[in-house]
Write a structure and sequence with these properties.
Helices cover 38% and strands 16% of the residues. It is of the alpha+beta class and 99 residues long. The protein has one domain. The longest helix is centred in the middle third of the chain and has 16 residues.
Length: 99
């Protein structure tokens, strides 16, 4: 699977349309795994990798969103930066198992 380009605008749009952090995570995963129909994925093995700066933007954007909403939740997983070779604003999808 190819790496996926990500923009601040895409992240902000997904946050604004999400009613909770779980919905944000699922919507981001659907975006990352777009070439594969989401309904055909049985299991995601690990976490997609992103660049530290991209991760920092996501955390900051969610934190700011939470401060202005009633959700008061925190995003604590979904993407990995550990040993990531992702470039800024790029997501490296992880392996997955199809149904």
């Amino acid at each position: 699977m190819n790496n996926v380009k990500l923009t601040k605008k895409t992240i902000d749009r997904i946050i604004a349309k999400s009613s909770c952090v779980a919905e944000f995570t699922v919507t981001m995963y659907k975006y990352v795994f777009l070439p594969v129909a989401w309904e055909n994925i049985e299991k995601i093995n690990g976490y997609p990798h992103i660049h530290c700066k991209t991760n920092e933007y996501i955390f900051t954007a969610i934190k700011l969103y939470n401060e202005h909403s009633l959700l008061n939740t925190w995003f604590n997983n979904g993407f990995s930066t550990m040993n990531s070779t992702a470039k800024e604003w790029e997501v490296i999808p992880c392996d997955y198992t199809l149904k």
